[in-house]
Predict the 3D structure of the following.
Amino acid sequence: MSQAYSVQPSQAVASVAPDSFPRWILFCAAGIMAFSLIAVGLIRITGNGPDQRAAAPTVQRSLLFQDQKDGGVRVADGVSGQTLTVLYGEQGFVRGALRALSRERFSRGIGSSEPFNLIARVDGRVTLMDPSTGQRVDLESFGPTNTAEFARFLAMQPE
């Protein structure tokens, strides 16, 4: 007793699975793109982007940083050449910031004889700028302790 089963053509088409890509992934991707566009638009409208204008300087000092044979770093006034201090030991943040700016000088073939500008601004920011390359480090981005490491050079008198 065998039974014969017959499949109607309309039933065969219904049993094939449609494209099963999850729609929620598409909605998430669209949401991320919309968020990105809105964020970029707000930054451009408010002027708080990386190309924002710097506040007016209150104090500015030209500084030379020179490595010494004993491992110290001589900090000198960039105008008079007089020594302000010599940094010994780790001085991690100071050395790191200088290394970042010096790397750009080296890649352009600029020596270390040109001074850096240390600028304190009206809005409380402190900036270390390399006028020979146009590069700058906004020091307040690294916290008040690290900013103070450089800000002390603004008030120092030659030894």
